[in-house]
Amino acid sequence: MRKHSRFALTSPSAARRRRVTPDTSACTLISYIAPAAPATRRWARGNEPFLRPEIGFTPKWFRENVPFEDGPIDFGEKWHTNPEYRRKTLLAARAELRRRFPGTAIGHIDEPDQPLDVLTGTYGGSLIAAIFGVPIIWARDNWPNAAHQYLSDDEMAAIEPADLDASPVFQDLMRQVDWIAESEGIITGFINPQGILNNAQRLRGETIFMDMFDNPDGCRRLFDVIAETMIAVVLRVHARQRETGFDPQFFTVSNCLVNMVSPRQYHELLLPYDRRIAEIYPCIGIHNCAWNANGYMDDYATVPNLGYIDMGIDSDLRRARELVPQGRRALMYTPMDVANKDSVELRADFEKIADEYGPCDIVLADIEAGTPDARVRELVDICAEISAARA
């Protein structure tokens, strides 16, 4: 039986007949970047190398580099709302990745094309905002963005949890999920609910940061509404996935904007929601982005069932390893450093990460068009050499 992530999968027909659940005895998640999707997380296999690279490219990279039967791939509305089109583009993207980077796991091309993850990346990071009615700005060569149509003070005070049964966006998502079940026999993959502050900023704009000083009670009410909606969306999608034999059993939150607030504000206004989400699932991953996490990592370490955390290279990596010994740690290495640092600098950074933070993932996401393939292969090779030296 082949292992796919932490989920034992056979053929699509067999998947319809049997339930497949992850081994959650060890709460350990790893970074996961599906082709053309933003980074998210999935269950670890348990055999990860000491320094594991997770490499991903922007939609622009795929649009410029992947031969496709209908011309350049359109990552706009069609890609996010037509799962049949998305599936065709993913197969083309995987074929091109295999041609350029044979023998690697980039884009998880080491795994079979059937069943295919057609879910991850859908609506990008804009799903929750769109469910609340924020229009989506589509782009042919980028991920979707939420329009800058923000809640007024009165609208913020009156907001209620989204009615998913009345949400056209959520109903469209579930239509796509049903299509994937019919196509693949099992609904693998993961939606991206983002995090409390990320979603609040999409709904309220930069005013949310002033609200946290001037109207903390109003923020708590907004955060309550967002958390309830995030949880409801994920529970509904996961329930449908379980019907096909795939049970994610974890939640991942994105705290990309956490460095815009003080550690005290995170502790008082945001940490309670990360903890609330963590209490629902047997495992949670926290994405801190490539920021310095020093002011927040002590609070992160108090989140129950923490199976993953990431941060930037300027963080106190040794301290993070002490605080989170049980989960998988990941280092968000910026695409600017990938493009601009020379080989000596890259190796020095990777050795530092291994010494102070490993075993861990290095997340090399958002690699742009124009980055030489040789540089990408070099990243893989450096990680392999460092891992071999520590085996």
Provide tags for this entry.
TIM Barrel, 6-stranded parallel sheet, two-stranded antiparallel sheet, 391 residues, alpha/beta, disordered N terminus
How would you describe the overall organization of this protein?
- By secondary structure, the chain is of the alpha/beta class.
- The protein has a single domain (3-389), classed as TIM Barrel, CATH 3.20.20.210.
- It is 45% helix and 13% strand.
- The strands form four sheets. A six-stranded parallel sheet has the order 5-12-11-10-9-8.
- Strand 10 (306-311), helix 13 (317-323) and strand 11 form a beta-alpha-beta unit.
- Helix 7 (168-184) runs parallel beside helix 10 (216-244), helix 8 (196-204) crosses helix 10 (216-244) and helix 15 runs parallel beside helix 16 (373-389).
- It is globular.
- The two termini are 27 Å apart.
- DSSP, total strands: 12
Individual helix count? 16
Strands in their spatial order, largest beta sheet: 5-12-11-10-9-8
Please name the CATH architecture: Alpha-Beta Barrel
Distance between the termini: 27 Å
**Overall geometric form:** globular
Largest sheet: 6 strands, parallel
The secondary-structure class comes to alpha/beta
Low-confidence stretches: 1-22
What value does the average pLDDT take?
A: 94
